[in-house]
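Could you please consider the sequence and fold following this short note?
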Amino acid sequence: MLAVLVVLGVAGAVAVALRPAPVSATVSGLPGDNPMLNAADLAALALTITPSPGVAPAAVTVRLDGQRVQPEQEGRDLMVRPGRLDDGAHQLTVQVAADGPFGAPSSSRHTFSVDTTPPSLSVPPRMDAESLRGELTVSGRVEDADTVSVNDVAATVTGKTFTATLAAPPATVDVVATDAAGNTADASSTVHVTHPPMRGVHMTALAWTAKSLRGPILKLVREGRIDTIELDIKDEDGLVGYDSKVPLARRIKAAKGYYDAPAVLKQLHKMDVRVVGRIVAFRDPKLGGWAWRHGRRDWVIQTPGGQAYGGKYGAYSFTNPFNADVRRYNIALATEAAELGFDDVLYDYVRRPDGRLSQLRFPGRRGTPEAAIAGFMRETREAVRAKGAFLGASVYGIAATRPTEIAQDIPTMAENADYIAPMVYPSHWGPGEYGVANPNRSPYPIVRRSLGDFQRLVADSDTQIMPWLQDFSLGVTYGPKQVAAQIKAAKDAGTDSFLLWNAAARYTRAALAPKS
């Protein structure tokens, strides 16, 4: 490439002067002047070298830190992807050879630095908090970090120590340290809050409104025989016992307002009673029927032929645990309950219908029903923990040995719950289970042995076992001896906690010794 200059002399002679035309190549891909690249920047670094018009790509020579590199050619562009480089300063040199005998070569240098070393971060693998309804201070060690965040809350860094205060203890603490170059280090810690022992009984929403049922139970409280009442929030019919403000509950007319939740909570807390809110999760004919009629059929578990599943439970009885809207509805109720002041949220029917899986169709299914249930528990726990409540799950006794029959995999559920409440009612076991010939007539051994299995399954987690025990008669008359035998079996299996079930809310006072 030549530039021609013609000069006319005085005598008319012609003189020709030749000036070399510049040749060059531009480099793009480095952010700013003297950039500092972190690990993520370096991994994505792609330098584009574009020869100027008329310059052949073969005329361009590229060196990185003095060593020649062979770029990849993409059209006329040359691409250099360094991949891995040592921390420190680096220089990219681009030389363009002269074009012809009269051309002038060019050379350009581009400097940058690399820092891929993340900060040093250390947090304890487990933290303990006294209460879910108080602040949690998180601290740990850090070096070479500009900022530290704890669950998205900015921490104070003093020397090699960071500290942050969270409004309430989450299930998991996630810490991220970031240095000046943008490198990050992260660490997680589980937060353990010991659930206090509880000796409780179940009450439906309507049972609470009946003085003839409420009175004897409050007497058990005053006598020190129980310290917990489990009260229905959403029952097996899908009806919400108090005047819920959850929009979908109101839209489907599920909120019945049988009891005044704030007033009940205030009354029971004043008596030092723990209040557990029971939410029947996926057995919900109220929601299922409404969804089916309003064109939301994917909210409902179906038969293989696409009809609403009923089974032995009735039409539209089971909603779909894979459906995000169904999950959100239950989580909204759980979160509302925690905000109102319920101490725990205890899910029931947090499972699929029993029976062959081949006879059930779950619209939008991805993965196993067991994984869907565990994921739902995880989502709920994060939500209710933030509001200061524990999360429990009522499970079938057979789930310890047959997790896929109803989609209750105990070790996986235990990772996402504060306690598991196995329903180990003697009347619900078949002959020979756990080597007990007649479980209904042998309440102590069947409860003791089955709970031993559950304790083993949660041994590697922080989850506690708090069983449901039978205070009703089914085939065999149950009185003080049978109920007391179950309570002793639970204690011998390693738990001082229990919940008694009687659908009529009438409990055996003589089986409940006053707490010493």
